[in-house]
Write a structure and sequence with these properties.
alpha+beta, Aminopeptidase, 7-stranded mixed β-sheet, membrane, transmembrane helix, GNAT_dom, Acyl_CoA_acyltransferase
Length: 143
């Protein structure tokens, strides 16, 4: 398994593996923008790109895991955890945040297993599906 920065050559691959991008042109635009901004990373395994993630720094000046997307055929193989662990290791701020919907149990379990703790909730983003905010103190890796 190898994690590297995404390049524009990866756009079509990331769009194809993203379950939202197939029917959402805005997601396709986000993927290209994330790559152009240099905050998108891919996981290669067995010669294929199986996942991507986005580490940004727009959340009140802190690191923020904006996206983790694992291709359906690569799920439950540790690619999501590899990305999260990579982000916790390279985050340049003392705190790294992430969020997911209350309905997304898999992402909640992944973040908790990676050492994140619940930090709060945001209502009214998605109707009847609150967003849970998680925090990881990146400095604990450097102590």
């Amino acid at each position: 398994m190898k994690i590297r920065s995404a390049t524009l050559a990866d756009v079509d691959t990331l769009v194809a593996l993203d379950t939202i991008a197939a029917h959402d042109p805005e997601r396709r635009h986000h993927i290209r923008s994330w790559i152009e901004a240099g905050c998108c990373y891919v996981v290669e395994t067995s010669g294929s790109v199986g996942a991507y993630g986005v580490l940004a720094y727009h959340f009140f000046g802190n690191g923020f895991v904006e996206m983790i997307m694992v291709a359906e055929r690569f799920r439950r193989r540790g690619l999501g955890m590899a990305l999260v662990k990579h982000f916790t290791a390279v985050c340049s701020t003392p705190k790294l945040f992430a969020s997911t919907n209350l309905s997304n149990r898999h992402m909640q379990e992944l973040l908790c297993a990676a050492g994140f703790c619940t930090s709060g909730y945001i209502d009214n983003l998605d109707e009847n599906d609150p967003e849970i905010v998680f925090c990881f103190h990146a400095t604990q890796l450097r102590s």
